[in-house]
Design a protein that fits this description.
mainly alpha, 145 residues, 0% strand, globular, 73% helix
């Protein structure tokens, strides 16, 4: 998240990372499997608030994140979405990014908005961030080959 600019890009990167990595951890895999109990655990929400709270608050201050829902509820929503994404058969970066852009970002942004319906400046920023991330991914793949 720290490497990304823009609150939505930060959360998209976090969801991609968590969806890829959490199921690999035995403890997290167990929590995900028992999500109906663990998702409501106060410790899970505490960790989520510690990780996402400051970014959500920045997003609210900047007007990127809706103001009509509490930070705690937004953090809880992100935890729920992370659990759901981590439990999907297709956890590829593309699938997770699509899930984020189509469903999670519009909820974070508020009613009547989506990544596609954002202001022209926001659309441009989102497109540029997506393109820069794609270029960086290609560079990483080239280095690994």
């Amino acid at each position: 998240m720290a490497e990304k600019s823009g609150v939505l890009a930060k959360f998209e990167a976090a969801l991609i990372y968590a969806t890829r990595e959490l199921p690999k951890d035995p403890t997290m895999a167990t929590l995900i499997a028992q999500h109906s109990a663990s998702i409501h655990d106060a410790r899970v929400l505490d960790v989520a608030l510690a990780l996402t709270g400051p970014v959500l608050q920045d997003g609210v201050r900047n007007g990127d994140i809706r103001r009509d829902v509490s930070i705690g509820d937004l953090a809880r929503f992100l935890v729920e979405q992370t659990y759901l994404a981590a439990g999907q058969p297709d956890r590829s970066e593309e699938a997770v990014a699509n899930r984020f852009r189509q469903f999670i970002a519009p909820v974070l942004m508020g009613r009547g908005q989506s990544a596609e319906c954002a202001s022209p400046t926001e659309q441009y920023e989102f497109a540029m961030l997506t393109a820069m991330e794609a270029v960086e991914n290609l560079r990483l793949r080239e280095r690994l080959q």
